[in-house]
Structure formats: structure tokens, C-alpha cells
Amino acid sequence: MDMMSVRPALSGKTYFIRTFGCQMNLHDSERVAGLLDACGCLEAADPAGADIVIFMTCCVREAADQRLYGQCNSCKSLPAPPSGTRVVAVGGCIAQRDGEGLLTNVDNVNVIFGTHAIAHVGELIAQAFEDGGRHVSIAEDESLAAVSMPWHRETVYHAWVPIMTGCNNFCSYCIVPYVRGREKSRPFEEVVDEVSALVRSGVREITLLGQNVNSYGRDRYGAPRFAELLRKVGETGIERIRFTSSHPKDLLPETIDAMAETPAVMPHLHLAVQSGSTRILKEMNRRYTREDYLDLVRRVRDRIPGIALTTDIIVGFPGETEEDFEETLSLAREVGYAQAFTFIYSRREGTPAAAIVDPTPHEVIQERFDRLVKVIEDTAYEFNQGELHATVPVLVEGASKKNTRVLQGKSPKNQTVHAPIPEGLNIEDLIGKIVDVRVDTARTWYLSGTVAGDPR
Ligand code: SAM
Ligand code: SF4
Ligand code: F3S
């Protein structure tokens, strides 16, 4: 079945997508929405009003599985949808990992589509409407069809641009390489052309996506071409370039140079460290030491003074001792992170770390986690003080949740910034615009100030 043949079965149906997990999933959801739009479907505001309910799932940590079962079950008590029949579909990483097995845990799910089957979601859902049966597709598709499909963006000013899928790194705790497969880079010209088209359609900021963007191109061209890609994308007229994630072991000097020399590349680098202990890093199969990481941070800061560094940290990796953990605390202080995503280690069946037995009680791990959160709060607060009294260009995202007369947006360093909306302007006039904000207050998680000059 192709898109044209499923159109009659889907046209006029409403859909609702709930997304969990990382930016890959967020972007995959945009592709699914784009495909359903192309089949004549309409987005619904909530699951109760939707003929099609889709869960885009994540299995990077354990709690997600139970939450998914709960969400699927809660669809049973929703009122009947507009068309009379509701199709519940599960996509993303749990779908890819469990496939048919998921059907036994959730009895009201009609469609299961894996991370390689996004291009087929329309036909699977159409079949479910037609025959009332259950349809599963998790086969590895060798093509990159899904990343070239139409897509439905959440905002007009920002776009996620996947440059590669999969991961080759096999960090010992991580499930991602098993569910997303090996690294597969998109063609260089295709990415550049896509960004050029986005610029023409009014997009001002893009985020290049991959589990390890630093190795972009290695599978396709025999050597990484990420530095070259940054420079080329920087010539398209896009105003702000961000990227995630960047594995420390693969961040080349030429990439740091490209970041420093491409004005559109924002002064922010997400560089996941995971642990500050060389011993634990080895156990994690990260392939760098504490010293390598700190040396890299020094080199990045030399080339890009003032850059915001953010990270991911895991607490409670099996066998982590108090001494190991304290090395993580001291590294976080030394780097002075602007933000960090902190996680308690979650055992993932099938990964090498799952076999390591760890007697450390949960309370000890939780207490360490809380200490780390406090240290990150301190470093984030300190980092933000650096912007006090500065004027920062803010890309406006919308109104603050607490006050509709206050705008909220992002600084180049990815800090959240608040400022009162100038008299005579509405938030609708400002969304997607860049305004200069003179910062007069710097807190842990945001800056605030006053708008100076006209939006542009
Ligand atoms: N590829 C990215 C990188 O290496 O920077 C990370 C992608 S992963 C989806 C996001 C984060 O989840 C990781 O950086 C890690 O901190 C965390 N994570 C992965 N597996 C985990 C596990 N088993 N338990 C706890 N946190 C985990
Ligand atoms: Fe997971 Fe490591 Fe790959 Fe990131 S680089 S997705 S943490 S295996
Ligand atoms: Fe989760 Fe899959 Fe992303 S496991 S973090 S949604 S790659």
C-alpha cells in the first residue's frame, strides 16, 4: 500500500500523538504527523477527540514501560471517537524492542510500528481500520525513507533536522544501539538542501540531530564530515544552529574550529560526560578518561570563550563508590555546567551492565543524586551570573506560563529568558522574532530583563 491508496481509509480521521523520550522521538512524531496530514487526517487537541491515538515510546529507563501500559489502558475509558472506531498505535523504541510481545501486555493496541517502520504507519493504521485486526511492523528497513518524508513541525521558527540515525557506541548501560540500529548518515547534500528549504520557509533556528553527530558521515563517506557540514549549513542563511548529541571521544579539533568560525553556530555545547571517574567511564565503555574530558573542555573554552556547556550524568552505575561519585561532583564543579540532565542508573535487560551485580542500597544512590542536583544548581546559577547586565538576543518561543504579558525565549547560550512584552505588542507579534533583552536578574534556571529595541 502506498500513501495514495491509504488516503481513502484515513481521510478526515483525527489523530493525537503523545511523545516520550529524546529529540529523535520528537522528530519521528513530526514525521508521523506529516504523513497522516498528507493522508488527509487532522490533528486532535486531546486523545478523547481522536480516532487515532499514537504513543511514541522510549525505553532508555525502566519507568517508561509501566507508564505506557497505563496510558494504553486509559484509552479504554475514553468516549467513542468521531468515526466510531479508535485505533491505538504504539511506535518508538518500546515498539521496536518488544514488537509483537507488546500485544500481550496491552490488549487494546491495534498497531505496533518500530523505529524503522515510520514510513509505513499510514498503511498499518489504514489496515487496522479496515479489518479491525492487529498489525505489527518492526523489520529493519535499510533505507532512510522516513527521514525524507513530509513533516509537520510544531513551530514555524525552529526545526529538528536529523543528520543520522542509530548509534555504534554501545555504552555498556544503554539500550539505544539495540533499538535504533547502527549509525546511518543522510547524504551531505540532502541535509544542506533541507536546511536551505527550511530557511526559505521562514525557519530561523535548526537543531541537527544524531546520537553522536561528531561521527556524521563516517558510515557513508569513510570519514566524519561533521565540521564540514556545520560550515556548509552555516552558509545557507540559517541564523541559529544547534546540535545534539556530541560524544566527547569523537569531538575533533576541526569541529571546534568550525563551531568557532561559523557565526550561526550557537555558543552552547551539550557534551555528555556520564561520570567523572575514569574507572567508571571505562566500565561504561565511554572510551575517554576524566582527564581527556577536562582537556577537551579547556580546548573548547580556549576557542569559544564563554560557551555554555551542558551534560548528561548517570548516578549509581553498578559498582560506583562514594569516591567515584565524588569525582563526578568535582568534575561538575570544575566544568561549571550551565545545565545537566541527571539520571539514576536504570538496569536495561540485554545491555552488558545489566549483568553487573551491585549491592549499593537505593537510598545511598538517591542521596548522591540529590547532592549532584544541588551542585548543578550552584554551577547553573554561577553560569547565569555571567549574563547579568548584558544584552542578549532572544528568540521568542511564546508567553511565560505564569504571566501572559511576559515573553519567554532562548538566548544564544540556550538560557531561558523572560521579559515583559513591550506596550502595544502582543505575544503573537513576537513568536519567532528575535528581541534584545537587557538582563537585570540572573537566577538558576532563567534570566529576566527588559526588551531593548525593536523585534526583528
Ligand atoms: N547519545 C547521547 C550521548 O551519548 O550523549 C545520549 C542519548 S541517551 C538517549 C540520553 C541519556 O540517557 C544518556 O546520555 C544517559 O545519560 C542516559 N541513559 C542512557 N541509558 C541509561 C540507563 N540505562 N540508565 C540511566 N540513564 C541512562
Ligand atoms: Fe547510548 Fe552511548 Fe549511543 Fe549515547 S552514545 S545513544 S549513551 S550507546
Ligand atoms: Fe528513548 Fe529511544 Fe530516544 S530509547 S531516549 S526515545 S532513542
TrEMBL record:
Span of domain Radical SAM core: 153-382
Family stated for the protein in its record: Belongs to the methylthiotransferase family. MiaB subfamily.
Cofactor note (record): Binds 2 [4Fe-4S] clusters. One cluster is coordinated with 3 cysteines and an exchangeable S-adenosyl-L-methionine.
Enzyme Commission (EC) number: 2.8.4.3
Keywords from the UniProt entry: 4Fe-4S, Cytoplasm, Iron, Iron-sulfur, Metal-binding, S-adenosyl-L-methionine, Transferase, tRNA processing
Cofactor names: [4Fe-4S] cluster
Protein name in the entry: tRNA-2-methylthio-N(6)-dimethylallyladenosine synthase
Classification lineage: Bacteria, Bacillati, Actinomycetota, Coriobacteriia, Coriobacteriales
Originating species: Enorma massiliensis
Quaternary state and interactors: Monomer.
